[in-house]
Amino acid sequence: MEISQEQKIKLYRVIKIVLISFLVAFAVNILFESTSYSKRGDKQENTITFSGHGEVNAVPDIANIYFNISKEAKTVKEAQVLVAEIEKKSLESLKTNGVLEKDIKTVNASFSPKYEYRYNTKTMMPCTQYSCPPSQGNNVIVGYTASESITVKVRNTDDVGKIMQGLGTLGVSDLSGPNFSIDNEDGLKAEARKNAINDAKDKAIILAKDLGIRLGKITSFSESGNYPTPMYAKGMMLDGVSNESAPASLPKGENTITSDVSITYEIK
């Protein structure tokens, strides 16, 4: 059966209406789902954050000292020999005072030429009444400087003054320290962190009661600090120590390990 032109037009109109209705319904459904998802995603939990501080004081059990050996000579070999002589005496002194070989470390060894500017007398012109002509010359190597830098960890802190006093008589230079510290700080850091957490929790309990709220689960935690802060005793010497001024013993003071935490709770 052949479809007339008028029937074809009506059929196209029906298909067009159905297609438009389907597209509108599809668009509305997408918009609804997007809005619902957005509302769920933007939902924010009510939270409250508390900070806590903890610290632990401890007497240092090690001391670090530093010194340099520097000598000049006509040749590199001669300069290095002079440095080696003082180094040998220094190591003997350290070991005599109970310093372990593993606690003595060379951190730098170097040598450099020493220059001197010398004029060429053959090209020098006599000065006139008004000026002196510039003289020609060049830099000439006149010797070499050899240097060695050494760090020492002293485990018997009561002997650090005596050790530094001994080094000061052997010709070392730039003798500095002592820097008192704690050899194993992990346990103290954990204790300081625990104190900080307890401080934050105590604040949370008190403030929650004052505000009339109930705290839920912890949603986040962060920590800062957890580093040693030296508390120097009066009279402690930190820079150079000479053989006349070094005391028999140096006060160690205390080091403070600190921790600062932030704890965020969900409010029920």
Characterize the structure shown.
By secondary structure, this protein is an alpha+beta fold. Among the domains are: about 45-60 and about 185-265, Protein of unknown function (DUF541), domain 1 (Translation Initiation Factor IF3), CATH 3.30.110.170; about 60-110 and about 145-180, 2-Layer Sandwich (Alpha-Beta Plaits), CATH 3.30.70.2970. About 35% of the residues lie in helices and about 35% in strands. The protein has a four-stranded antiparallel beta sheet. Strands 1-7-6 form a three-stranded antiparallel beta sheet. The longest helix has about 40 residues, at about 5-40. The protein is flat, with a radius of gyration of 40 Å. One of its GO terms (biological process) is DNA damage response. It comes from Candidatus Nomurabacteria bacterium CG1_02_31_12.
Name its key features.
268 residues, alpha+beta, Translation Initiation Factor IF3, Alpha-Beta Plaits, four-stranded antiparallel beta sheet, three-stranded antiparallel beta sheet, 4 helices, 7 strands, flat, 26 kDa periplasmic immunogenic protein, SIMPL/DUF541, 26kDa_periplasmic_antigen
CATH class of one domain: Alpha Beta
**Would you list the SSEs in sequence order as H and E?**
HEEHEEHEHEE
Report the end-to-end length measured between terminal Cα atoms: 73 Å
Number of DSSP helical runs: 4
CATH superfamily of one domain, by name, is Protein of unknown function (DUF541), domain 1
Protein name: 26 kDa periplasmic immunogenic protein
InterPro entries: 26kDa_periplasmic_antigen, SIMPL/DUF541
Pfam family, one: SIMPL
Organism: Candidatus Nomurabacteria bacterium CG1_02_31_12
